[in-house]
Amino acid sequence: MNALLMELVFMTASPSHGVWVAQGYPGDWESAASVLTEAGVDHLLPCLLYGITPAYPSNLVTDSRAFPPDTAWIDEMFSVCGETGIEVHSWVVLWRVSRADSLLAEELAREGRLQITSGNDTLPWLCPTDPGNLEFQGALLEEMMDRYNLDGVHLDYIRYPDGNSCFCEGCRARFQQHSGHAVYRWPDDVLENGPLHGEYTDWRVGRITDAVSVFSRLVRARGLSVSAAVFSNINYGLDCGQDWVEWCGLGLLDRIYHMNYFGTAAEVEAAVRTQRSLLPRCCYIVSGLGSSIGSLAISTEEATLQVEASLRAGADGICHFHLNTTLLRMLPLIRIRESTR
After folding, report:
1. Based on the structure, what is the number of domains in the chain?
2. Is 176 buried (19+), middle (13-18) or exposed (0-12) by CB count in 10 A?
């Protein structure tokens, strides 16, 4: 598609409207679907895979008591979405081990496959630079796509927890091989003020980009859409290894969802304008809004202003976190209006 035609598509297309679904919905799905369709919601993002713990029985991992399989709500959701035409994009929380079977988590720790902080604490996250972990996470994605008739896959937590990981021995060996440097004072030499800090930071960011590339290929090979949820601020994202500007520049995503969880429309609008300025016009930006997060309890009037501010600032769609009774009460009052484009 040439640049002019792409621009015309974006100018005339209706904004997309999505809702994240954290752990099912405790109410009546048919009634919920009626509210969602009336409010113009065209896609749901249910969490079907939390790190290495599926929301359904798996042939690859043991069922977890912390996140027991529950296919009833999943089957009901797919049924009503099929009837109403709402798309389903599986929300995949990557790397997380916190809800996994305890024996499996202990085994991964013994094998040195979990992330380590600079203070030598073990985190319940897979190390993303470990090729075995990348293969393991990819196999779980494949199993999920085999099981469900999805429209897309939505990657979340595609990053490190923060700037203080990972400093496992595997990272040390792989960085040394990549850079050609012998790191004698580990991790001091790669921490802030260390002689290899900048190079290690770039290497770390590159490994997350590699993971996005691998997962994107797996998803697109099935003919599905691939998207990712990312931090609103690129600088904070980079500190966690998340270079969403490069991902979009490389064409690894079909949509990018910025987590614009702010209390006011002015903050949302400023964030979206910055995001839009950093990305090519062909990148499809969705403004993720925390309208129903308890810590950001806002009025329906403010929620509406945030939707309008997002679209006015250049977002191509919006997505609400997350499906619950509060959001269902608010949605009819904050539907997307074409006039805001």
Report:
1. 1
2. middle
C-alpha dist (Å) from residue 231 to 23, 159, 271:
22, 10, 11
Contact, 226 vs 220, CB < 8 A? Answer: yes
pLDDT band at 23 (very low <50, low <70, confident <90, very high): confident
Asked whether residue 3 is domain-assigned, the answer is no
63-69, long-range: CB < 8 A, 24+ apart: 63/101, 64/99, 64/100, 64/101, 65/101, 66/98, 66/99, 66/100, 67/99, 67/100
Domain-located, residue 205: yes
218 Cβ neighbours under 8 A, 6+ residues apart:
138, 141, 142, 145
Distances from the Cα of 152 to the Cα of 203, 215, 227, 266, 290, angstroms: 29, 12, 8, 31, 22
Q: Who wins on pLDDT, 253 or 66?
A: 253
CATH for 325:
3.20.20.80
Residues 28-45: tens digit of each pLDDT: 999 999 999 999 999 999
Please check whether residue 211 lies inside any domain of the structure.
yes
**pLDDT of 13:** 66
Structure tokens at 328: 């269902």
Question: 40: domain range?
Answer: 10-340
